[in-house]
Protein backbone atom coordinates (compact mmCIF):
# COMPACT_ATOMS: atom_id res chain seq x y z
CA UNK A 1 0.00 0.00 0.00
CA UNK A 2 1.41 3.44 -0.95
CA UNK A 3 1.92 5.85 1.92
CA UNK A 4 -0.95 8.37 2.26
CA UNK A 5 0.06 11.80 0.97
CA UNK A 6 -1.01 15.35 1.61
CA UNK A 7 -2.11 17.67 -1.19
CA UNK A 8 1.29 19.37 -1.10
CA UNK A 9 3.23 16.10 -1.13
CA UNK A 10 1.35 14.89 -4.21
CA UNK A 11 2.16 18.03 -6.17
CA UNK A 12 5.77 18.11 -4.95
CA UNK A 13 6.49 14.49 -5.85
CA UNK A 14 4.99 14.92 -9.32
CA UNK A 15 7.32 17.83 -10.10
CA UNK A 16 10.72 16.57 -8.89
CA UNK A 17 13.16 16.47 -11.82
CA UNK A 18 16.29 15.61 -9.81
CA UNK A 19 16.65 14.74 -6.12
CA UNK A 20 19.97 15.54 -4.42
CA UNK A 21 18.72 14.61 -0.98
CA UNK A 22 18.97 17.99 0.75
CA UNK A 23 17.29 19.76 -2.17
CA UNK A 24 15.52 18.93 -5.40
CA UNK A 25 15.25 20.41 -8.86
CA UNK A 26 11.57 21.25 -9.13
CA UNK A 27 9.78 21.74 -12.43
CA UNK A 28 7.76 24.98 -12.52
CA UNK A 29 4.59 24.77 -14.57
CA UNK A 30 3.71 28.44 -14.72
CA UNK A 31 5.30 31.73 -13.82
CA UNK A 32 3.94 35.23 -13.33
CA UNK A 33 5.91 38.40 -14.05
CA UNK A 34 5.36 42.04 -13.10
CA UNK A 35 7.36 45.19 -13.75
CA UNK A 36 9.69 44.53 -10.82
CA UNK A 37 11.24 41.67 -12.82
CA UNK A 38 13.71 43.90 -14.67
CA UNK A 39 16.65 42.56 -12.63
CA UNK A 40 15.98 38.99 -13.83
CA UNK A 41 15.55 40.06 -17.46
CA UNK A 42 18.72 42.14 -17.22
CA UNK A 43 20.66 39.13 -15.92
CA UNK A 44 19.35 37.01 -18.80
CA UNK A 45 20.39 39.63 -21.34
CA UNK A 46 23.85 39.93 -19.81
CA UNK A 47 24.35 36.19 -20.31
CA UNK A 48 22.80 36.19 -23.77
CA UNK A 49 19.98 33.89 -22.67
CA UNK A 50 16.37 33.74 -23.80
CA UNK A 51 13.30 32.72 -21.81
CA UNK A 52 13.08 28.95 -22.24
CA UNK A 53 9.30 28.58 -22.35
CA UNK A 54 7.69 32.01 -22.75
CA UNK A 55 4.15 30.59 -23.10
CA UNK A 56 4.38 29.30 -19.52
CA UNK A 57 4.77 32.83 -18.20
CA UNK A 58 2.21 35.62 -18.05
CA UNK A 59 3.11 39.26 -17.45
CA UNK A 60 1.18 42.22 -16.10
CA UNK A 61 1.99 45.72 -14.90
CA UNK A 62 0.58 46.28 -11.41
CA UNK A 63 2.95 47.52 -8.70
CA UNK A 64 3.94 50.90 -10.15
CA UNK A 65 1.01 51.72 -12.43
CA UNK A 66 -1.02 54.77 -11.35
CA UNK A 67 -4.70 54.42 -10.57
CA UNK A 68 -5.48 57.95 -11.75
CA UNK A 69 -5.39 59.38 -15.30
CA UNK A 70 -4.62 55.99 -16.84
CA UNK A 71 -6.10 57.10 -20.16
CA UNK A 72 -2.89 59.09 -20.63
CA UNK A 73 -0.83 55.90 -20.79
CA UNK A 74 2.81 56.17 -19.69
CA UNK A 75 2.43 59.93 -19.37
CA UNK A 76 0.22 59.30 -16.32
CA UNK A 77 3.23 57.89 -14.44
CA UNK A 78 4.63 60.89 -12.57
CA UNK A 79 7.80 59.26 -11.22
CA UNK A 80 10.48 58.96 -13.92
CA UNK A 81 11.98 55.78 -12.47
CA UNK A 82 8.60 54.07 -12.31
CA UNK A 83 7.82 55.20 -15.85
CA UNK A 84 11.05 53.68 -17.11
CA UNK A 85 10.39 50.48 -15.17
CA UNK A 86 6.99 50.05 -16.85
CA UNK A 87 8.45 50.84 -20.27
CA UNK A 88 11.24 48.31 -19.71
CA UNK A 89 8.69 45.74 -18.54
CA UNK A 90 6.72 46.01 -21.77
CA UNK A 91 9.91 45.89 -23.83
CA UNK A 92 11.25 42.78 -22.06
CA UNK A 93 7.94 40.94 -22.39
CA UNK A 94 7.76 41.71 -26.11
CA UNK A 95 11.39 40.75 -26.75
CA UNK A 96 11.02 37.46 -24.88
CA UNK A 97 7.67 36.50 -26.36
CA UNK A 98 5.78 36.59 -23.05
CA UNK A 99 2.11 37.53 -23.30
CA UNK A 100 1.79 40.84 -21.50
CA UNK A 101 -1.15 42.68 -19.97
CA UNK A 102 0.26 46.20 -20.06
CA UNK A 103 -1.09 49.09 -18.04
CA UNK A 104 -3.85 49.87 -20.56
CA UNK A 105 -4.74 46.29 -21.51
CA UNK A 106 -8.44 45.51 -20.90
CA UNK A 107 -7.42 42.49 -18.75
CA UNK A 108 -4.64 44.26 -16.81
CA UNK A 109 -4.67 43.81 -13.08
CA UNK A 110 -2.80 42.79 -9.98
CA UNK A 111 -0.74 39.72 -10.77
CA UNK A 112 -2.38 37.61 -8.03
CA UNK A 113 -5.85 38.62 -9.18
CA UNK A 114 -5.50 38.01 -12.90
CA UNK A 115 -3.84 34.58 -12.51
CA UNK A 116 -6.96 32.93 -11.04
CA UNK A 117 -9.31 35.25 -12.94
CA UNK A 118 -7.96 34.13 -16.32
CA UNK A 119 -7.69 30.48 -15.31
CA UNK A 120 -3.90 30.64 -15.68
CA UNK A 121 -3.76 29.31 -12.11
CA UNK A 122 -4.97 25.72 -11.90
CA UNK A 123 -5.00 22.86 -9.37
CA UNK A 124 -1.97 20.61 -9.11
CA UNK A 125 0.54 22.95 -10.73
CA UNK A 126 3.69 24.56 -9.39
CA UNK A 127 3.67 28.32 -9.78
CA UNK A 128 6.14 31.11 -9.07
CA UNK A 129 6.29 34.89 -9.15
CA UNK A 130 8.73 37.49 -7.92
CA UNK A 131 6.34 38.55 -5.19
CA UNK A 132 5.77 37.17 -1.69
CA UNK A 133 1.98 37.02 -2.02
CA UNK A 134 2.19 34.35 -4.71
CA UNK A 135 0.78 32.12 -1.96
CA UNK A 136 -2.61 33.49 -3.09
CA UNK A 137 -2.82 30.96 -5.93
CA UNK A 138 -2.80 28.03 -3.52
CA UNK A 139 -6.51 28.69 -3.03
CA UNK A 140 -7.06 26.73 -6.26
CA UNK A 141 -4.98 23.78 -5.09
CA UNK A 142 -1.67 24.87 -6.64
CA UNK A 143 1.72 24.93 -4.95
CA UNK A 144 2.51 28.62 -5.49
CA UNK A 145 5.33 30.56 -3.84
CA UNK A 146 7.27 33.79 -4.17
CA UNK A 147 10.84 33.93 -5.44
CA UNK A 148 13.66 36.48 -5.65
CA UNK A 149 15.29 38.01 -8.73
CA UNK A 150 18.02 35.35 -9.06
CA UNK A 151 15.46 32.56 -8.72
CA UNK A 152 13.20 34.25 -11.26
CA UNK A 153 16.12 34.32 -13.68
CA UNK A 154 16.56 30.56 -13.13
CA UNK A 155 12.87 29.88 -13.79
CA UNK A 156 12.83 32.03 -16.92
CA UNK A 157 16.00 30.39 -18.25
CA UNK A 158 15.30 26.75 -17.33
CA UNK A 159 11.65 26.39 -16.21
CA UNK A 160 13.08 24.66 -13.11
CA UNK A 161 14.17 25.74 -9.64
CA UNK A 162 16.30 24.23 -6.88
CA UNK A 163 14.23 23.93 -3.70
CA UNK A 164 14.34 22.43 -0.22
CA UNK A 165 11.20 20.59 0.76
CA UNK A 166 9.17 22.48 3.39
CA UNK A 167 7.29 20.83 6.24
CA UNK A 168 3.50 20.59 6.35
CA UNK A 169 1.04 22.33 8.67
CA UNK A 170 -2.71 21.75 8.61
CA UNK A 171 -4.89 24.53 9.97
CA UNK A 172 -8.43 23.28 10.58
CA UNK A 173 -11.34 25.61 11.30
CA UNK A 174 -14.64 23.87 11.94
CA UNK A 175 -18.09 25.28 12.61
CA UNK A 176 -20.00 28.10 10.94
CA UNK A 177 -18.79 31.69 10.69
CA UNK A 178 -21.05 34.29 12.24
CA UNK A 179 -22.60 37.24 10.41
CA UNK A 180 -20.04 39.82 9.36
CA UNK A 181 -17.11 37.41 9.70
CA UNK A 182 -15.18 36.87 6.46
CA UNK A 183 -12.10 35.14 5.13
CA UNK A 184 -10.04 38.21 6.09
CA UNK A 185 -11.16 37.86 9.70
CA UNK A 186 -10.33 34.16 9.63
CA UNK A 187 -6.76 34.62 8.39
CA UNK A 188 -6.08 37.57 10.72
CA UNK A 189 -7.28 35.41 13.62
CA UNK A 190 -5.04 32.52 12.52
CA UNK A 191 -1.99 34.80 12.26
CA UNK A 192 -2.75 36.33 15.66
CA UNK A 193 -2.98 32.79 17.06
CA UNK A 194 0.23 31.30 15.65
CA UNK A 195 2.27 34.48 15.09
CA UNK A 196 4.08 35.91 12.07
CA UNK A 197 6.76 33.22 12.40
CA UNK A 198 4.33 30.48 13.38
CA UNK A 199 4.42 28.80 9.97
CA UNK A 200 8.03 29.49 9.00
CA UNK A 201 9.37 26.53 7.07
CA UNK A 202 5.89 25.11 6.43
CA UNK A 203 3.30 24.88 3.71
CA UNK A 204 -0.15 25.41 5.23
CA UNK A 205 -3.14 23.39 4.13
CA UNK A 206 -6.42 24.96 5.21
CA UNK A 207 -9.02 22.36 6.11
CA UNK A 208 -12.33 22.01 7.89
CA UNK A 209 -15.93 23.07 7.45
CA UNK A 210 -15.19 26.79 7.20
CA UNK A 211 -12.85 26.47 4.22
CA UNK A 212 -14.92 23.83 2.49
CA UNK A 213 -17.91 26.19 2.47
CA UNK A 214 -15.88 29.34 1.79
CA UNK A 215 -16.13 31.03 -1.61
CA UNK A 216 -13.13 31.05 -3.91
CA UNK A 217 -12.67 34.75 -3.22
CA UNK A 218 -12.51 34.04 0.50
CA UNK A 219 -10.01 31.24 -0.02
CA UNK A 220 -7.85 33.53 -2.14
CA UNK A 221 -7.80 36.06 0.70
CA UNK A 222 -6.79 33.42 3.23
CA UNK A 223 -4.02 31.94 1.09
CA UNK A 224 -2.80 35.41 0.15
CA UNK A 225 -1.95 36.21 3.77
CA UNK A 226 -0.35 32.83 4.53
CA UNK A 227 2.99 34.50 3.93
CA UNK A 228 2.20 36.86 6.84
CA UNK A 229 2.37 33.84 9.14
CA UNK A 230 5.79 32.99 7.71
CA UNK A 231 4.51 30.14 5.53
CA UNK A 232 6.14 29.15 2.27
CA UNK A 233 2.69 28.72 0.77
CA UNK A 234 -0.97 28.26 1.66
CA UNK A 235 -3.26 25.74 -0.02
CA UNK A 236 -6.87 24.62 -0.15
CA UNK A 237 -7.75 21.28 -1.73
CA UNK A 238 -9.62 21.63 -5.04
CA UNK A 239 -13.32 20.76 -5.01
CA UNK A 240 -16.54 21.65 -6.81
CA UNK A 241 -16.16 25.30 -5.75
CA UNK A 242 -12.77 25.32 -7.49
CA UNK A 243 -14.05 23.64 -10.62
CA UNK A 244 -17.09 25.91 -10.91
CA UNK A 245 -14.81 28.94 -10.51
CA UNK A 246 -12.39 27.80 -13.23
CA UNK A 247 -14.83 26.49 -15.84
CA UNK A 248 -14.88 28.49 -19.09
CA UNK A 249 -12.12 30.89 -18.03
CA UNK A 250 -9.73 31.84 -20.87
CA UNK A 251 -6.82 29.56 -19.90
CA UNK A 252 -8.95 26.72 -18.49
CA UNK A 253 -9.07 23.42 -20.43
CA UNK A 254 -12.03 23.03 -22.79
CA UNK A 255 -14.25 20.12 -23.85
CA UNK A 256 -12.83 16.65 -23.27
CA UNK A 257 -9.65 18.22 -21.90
CA UNK A 258 -11.75 19.85 -19.19
CA UNK A 259 -13.25 16.51 -18.19
CA UNK A 260 -9.81 14.91 -18.07
CA UNK A 261 -8.42 17.80 -16.04
CA UNK A 262 -11.22 17.63 -13.46
CA UNK A 263 -10.72 13.89 -13.11
CA UNK A 264 -7.03 14.49 -12.37
CA UNK A 265 -7.75 17.38 -10.01
CA UNK A 266 -10.15 15.23 -8.02
CA UNK A 267 -7.23 12.96 -7.09
CA UNK A 268 -5.28 15.79 -5.46
CA UNK A 269 -6.94 16.26 -2.03
CA UNK A 270 -5.06 14.93 0.96
CA UNK A 271 -5.47 11.19 1.46
CA UNK A 272 -7.26 9.92 4.56
CA UNK A 273 -4.75 9.19 7.33
CA UNK A 274 -2.03 11.32 5.72
CA UNK A 275 0.08 12.90 8.43
CA UNK A 276 1.18 16.50 8.83
CA UNK A 277 4.24 17.75 10.68
CA UNK A 278 2.01 20.04 12.73
CA UNK A 279 -1.70 20.64 13.34
CA UNK A 280 -3.58 23.76 14.50
CA UNK A 281 -7.33 23.84 15.14
CA UNK A 282 -9.69 26.80 15.66
CA UNK A 283 -13.42 26.99 16.32
CA UNK A 284 -15.40 29.23 13.96
CA UNK A 285 -17.75 30.26 16.77
CA UNK A 286 -14.83 31.99 18.52
CA UNK A 287 -14.08 34.27 15.56
CA UNK A 288 -15.26 37.86 15.27
CA UNK A 289 -14.59 40.72 12.84
CA UNK A 290 -10.90 41.30 13.43
CA UNK A 291 -8.59 44.32 13.05
CA UNK A 292 -4.92 44.99 13.61
CA UNK A 293 -3.79 47.48 16.24
CA UNK A 294 -0.01 47.34 15.77
CA UNK A 295 2.58 47.17 13.01
CA UNK A 296 2.52 43.42 12.37
CA UNK A 297 -0.35 41.29 11.08
CA UNK A 298 -0.08 39.15 14.23
CA UNK A 299 -0.98 42.21 16.30
CA UNK A 300 -4.67 41.73 15.67
CA UNK A 301 -7.71 41.41 17.91
CA UNK A 302 -11.48 41.06 17.66
CA UNK A 303 -13.05 44.47 17.08
CA UNK A 304 -14.60 44.21 20.55
CA UNK A 305 -11.11 44.18 22.11
CA UNK A 306 -8.85 46.82 23.63
CA UNK A 307 -5.27 47.81 22.89
CA UNK A 308 -3.12 45.39 24.92
CA UNK A 309 -0.57 46.29 27.56
CA UNK A 310 2.95 45.22 26.50
CA UNK A 311 3.95 44.88 30.17
CA UNK A 312 1.57 41.94 30.47
CA UNK A 313 3.16 40.06 27.55
CA UNK A 314 5.37 37.17 28.66
CA UNK A 315 7.32 36.91 25.39
CA UNK A 316 10.10 39.55 25.57
CA UNK A 317 10.32 39.91 21.78
CA UNK A 318 6.60 40.48 21.44
CA UNK A 319 6.73 42.92 24.34
CA UNK A 320 9.44 45.03 22.69
CA UNK A 321 7.68 44.97 19.33
CA UNK A 322 4.37 45.94 20.93
CA UNK A 323 5.98 48.87 22.73
CA UNK A 324 7.46 50.10 19.46
CA UNK A 325 4.16 49.53 17.65
CA UNK A 326 2.17 51.55 20.18
CA UNK A 327 4.57 54.47 19.82
CA UNK A 328 4.31 54.41 16.04
CA UNK A 329 0.53 53.94 16.03
CA UNK A 330 -0.08 56.62 18.65
CA UNK A 331 -1.96 54.28 20.99
CA UNK A 332 -2.01 53.56 24.69
CA UNK A 333 -2.91 50.31 26.46
CA UNK A 334 -6.57 49.88 27.33
CA UNK A 335 -7.96 51.97 24.48
CA UNK A 336 -11.04 50.39 22.92
CA UNK A 337 -10.44 49.55 19.27
CA UNK A 338 -13.87 50.96 18.50
CA UNK A 339 -12.75 54.35 19.85
CA UNK A 340 -9.98 54.74 17.27
CA UNK A 341 -10.64 57.56 14.81
CA UNK A 342 -10.06 56.76 11.12
CA UNK A 343 -8.77 59.40 8.68
CA UNK A 344 -8.70 57.44 5.42
CA UNK A 345 -10.21 54.28 3.92
CA UNK A 346 -8.60 52.10 1.25
CA UNK A 347 -10.39 49.16 -0.39
CA UNK A 348 -8.50 47.03 -2.89
CA UNK A 349 -5.26 44.96 -3.32
CA UNK A 350 -4.60 41.30 -4.17
CA UNK A 351 -6.03 40.46 -0.76
CA UNK A 352 -9.44 42.08 -1.04
CA UNK A 353 -9.90 43.75 -4.42
CA UNK A 354 -12.09 41.11 -6.04
CA UNK A 355 -15.69 41.50 -7.16
CA UNK A 356 -17.11 39.76 -4.08
CA UNK A 357 -15.12 42.15 -1.87
CA UNK A 358 -16.45 45.19 -3.72
CA UNK A 359 -19.99 43.87 -3.52
CA UNK A 360 -19.74 43.40 0.24
CA UNK A 361 -18.30 46.87 0.80
CA UNK A 362 -20.92 48.44 -1.45
CA UNK A 363 -23.73 46.65 0.42
CA UNK A 364 -22.59 48.35 3.63
CA UNK A 365 -22.26 51.78 1.99
CA UNK A 366 -25.43 51.68 -0.11
CA UNK A 367 -27.44 54.89 0.20
CA UNK A 368 -25.16 56.39 2.88
CA UNK A 369 -22.38 58.98 3.05
CA UNK A 370 -18.82 58.36 4.20
CA UNK A 371 -17.49 60.60 6.96
CA UNK A 372 -13.88 60.21 5.87
CA UNK A 373 -12.23 60.30 2.43
CA UNK A 374 -10.92 57.19 0.74
CA UNK A 375 -10.62 55.31 -2.49
CA UNK A 376 -11.48 51.99 -4.08
CA UNK A 377 -9.10 50.32 -6.53
CA UNK A 378 -10.42 47.11 -8.15
CA UNK A 379 -8.04 44.17 -8.38
CA UNK A 380 -8.20 44.08 -12.18
CA UNK A 381 -9.58 45.98 -15.15
CA UNK A 382 -12.01 43.12 -15.71
CA UNK A 383 -13.32 43.46 -12.15
CA UNK A 384 -13.59 47.21 -12.66
CA UNK A 385 -15.75 46.63 -15.74
CA UNK A 386 -17.90 44.05 -13.93
CA UNK A 387 -18.36 46.34 -10.93
CA UNK A 388 -19.39 49.23 -13.15
CA UNK A 389 -21.87 47.00 -14.98
CA UNK A 390 -23.46 46.22 -11.59
CA UNK A 391 -23.45 49.88 -10.53
CA UNK A 392 -21.04 49.34 -7.65
CA UNK A 393 -18.91 52.28 -8.76
CA UNK A 394 -21.91 54.57 -8.32
CA UNK A 395 -22.46 53.30 -4.77
CA UNK A 396 -18.87 54.18 -3.87
CA UNK A 397 -18.99 57.54 -5.64
CA UNK A 398 -22.31 58.51 -4.08
CA UNK A 399 -20.91 57.58 -0.67
CA UNK A 400 -18.04 59.99 -1.29
CA UNK A 401 -15.22 57.55 -2.05
CA UNK A 402 -13.02 57.75 -5.15
CA UNK A 403 -13.37 55.06 -7.82
CA UNK A 404 -9.98 54.40 -9.40
CA UNK A 405 -8.27 52.13 -11.93
CA UNK A 406 -6.81 48.74 -11.04
CA UNK A 407 -3.39 48.13 -9.56
CA UNK A 408 -1.56 47.52 -6.31
CA UNK A 409 -2.45 51.11 -5.41
CA UNK A 410 -2.08 51.99 -1.72
CA UNK A 411 -0.89 48.55 -0.62
CA UNK A 412 2.78 49.52 -0.78
CA UNK A 413 2.50 53.20 -1.80
CA UNK A 414 4.75 52.69 -4.84
CA UNK A 415 2.61 54.53 -7.38
CA UNK A 416 1.54 57.76 -5.74
CA UNK A 417 -1.34 56.25 -3.75
CA UNK A 418 -0.28 56.80 -0.16
CA UNK A 419 -1.59 57.87 3.23
CA UNK A 420 -0.05 61.05 4.69
CA UNK A 421 2.10 60.78 7.81
CA UNK A 422 0.24 60.51 11.10
CA UNK A 423 -3.09 59.64 9.51
CA UNK A 424 -4.90 56.43 10.41
CA UNK A 425 -6.19 54.26 7.55
CA UNK A 426 -8.72 51.43 7.52
CA UNK A 427 -7.18 49.21 4.88
CA UNK A 428 -8.09 45.93 3.20
CA UNK A 429 -4.44 45.32 2.31
CA UNK A 430 -2.18 42.61 3.75
CA UNK A 431 0.59 44.43 5.62
CA UNK A 432 0.61 47.07 8.31
CA UNK A 433 4.37 47.56 8.73
CA UNK A 434 5.74 51.00 9.60
CA UNK A 435 5.62 53.15 6.47
CA UNK A 436 3.96 50.44 4.38
CA UNK A 437 1.19 52.72 3.09
CA UNK A 438 3.20 55.91 3.29
CA UNK A 439 5.88 57.35 5.56
CA UNK A 440 4.35 57.69 9.01
CA UNK A 441 0.99 56.24 7.91
CA UNK A 442 -0.86 54.21 10.55
CA UNK A 443 -2.53 51.15 9.03
CA UNK A 444 -5.32 49.04 10.52
CA UNK A 445 -5.95 45.90 8.47
CA UNK A 446 -9.55 44.71 8.20
CA UNK A 447 -12.12 43.21 5.84
CA UNK A 448 -13.91 45.18 3.10
CA UNK A 449 -17.11 45.21 5.17
CA UNK A 450 -15.23 46.58 8.18
CA UNK A 451 -13.46 49.20 6.04
CA UNK A 452 -16.82 50.32 4.65
CA UNK A 453 -18.22 50.54 8.19
CA UNK A 454 -15.24 52.70 9.22
CA UNK A 455 -15.89 54.97 6.25
CA UNK A 456 -19.46 55.56 7.43
CA UNK A 457 -18.67 56.31 11.06
CA UNK A 458 -15.13 57.72 10.95
CA UNK A 459 -14.07 55.18 13.59
CA UNK A 460 -13.17 51.51 13.69
CA UNK A 461 -16.65 50.03 13.87
CA UNK A 462 -18.11 46.58 14.31
CA UNK A 463 -19.85 46.09 10.98
CA UNK A 464 -22.35 43.80 12.70
CA UNK A 465 -23.83 46.86 14.40
CA UNK A 466 -24.49 48.40 10.99
CA UNK A 467 -25.76 45.19 9.44
CA UNK A 468 -28.03 44.58 12.40
CA UNK A 469 -29.47 48.03 12.15
CA UNK A 470 -30.11 47.97 8.42
What does this structure look like?
This protein has 470 residues and is an alpha/beta fold. It folds into 3 domains: 9-163, Aconitase, domain 3; 167-237 and 265-286, 3-Layer(aba) Sandwich (Aconitase, Domain 2), CATH 3.40.1060.10; 290-469, 2-Layer Sandwich (Aconitase, domain 3). Helices cover 33% and strands 17% of the residues. The protein is built from 17 helices and 19 strands. It has a 5-stranded parallel beta sheet with strand order 5-4-3-6-7. Helix 6 runs parallel beside helix 8, helix 13 packs across helix 15 and helix 13 runs parallel beside helix 16. It starts with 6 loop residues before the first helix and ends with a helix.
User: What is the global morphology?
Assistant: globular
- Per the CATH scheme, the topology name of the largest domain is Aconitase, domain 3
The Cα radius of gyration reads 21 Å
Q: Please identify, by name, the CATH architecture of the largest domain.
A: 2-Layer Sandwich
Category by helix and strand content: alpha/beta
Q: Runs with pLDDT <50, length 5+?
A: none
Helix content estimate: 25-40%
How many alpha or pi helices? 17
Question: Could you give the order of strands across the largest sheet?
Answer: 5-4-3-6-7
Task: Give the SSE map.
Elements: H1 7-14, E1 16-19, E2 24-27, E3 30-33, H2 38-46, E4 57-60, H3 80-96, E5 99-101, H4 111-117, E6 126-129, E7 143-146, H5 149-158, E8 160-163, E9 167-174, H6 183-194, E10 202-207, H7 209-213, H8 216-224, E11 233-235, H9 240-246, H10 256-265, E12 278-283, E13 290-292, E14 300-302, H11 316-329, E15 344-348, H12 349-352, H13 355-365, E16 374-377, H14 381-389, H15 392-399, E17 402-403, E18 424-427, E19 442-445, H16 448-457, H17 463-469
Parallel strand pairs: 3-4, 3-6, 4-5, 6-7, 9-10, 9-12, 10-11, 15-16, 15-18, 16-17, 18-19
Antiparallel strand pairs: 1-2, 2-8, 13-14
Helix pairs in contact: 2-5, 6-8, 13-15, 13-16
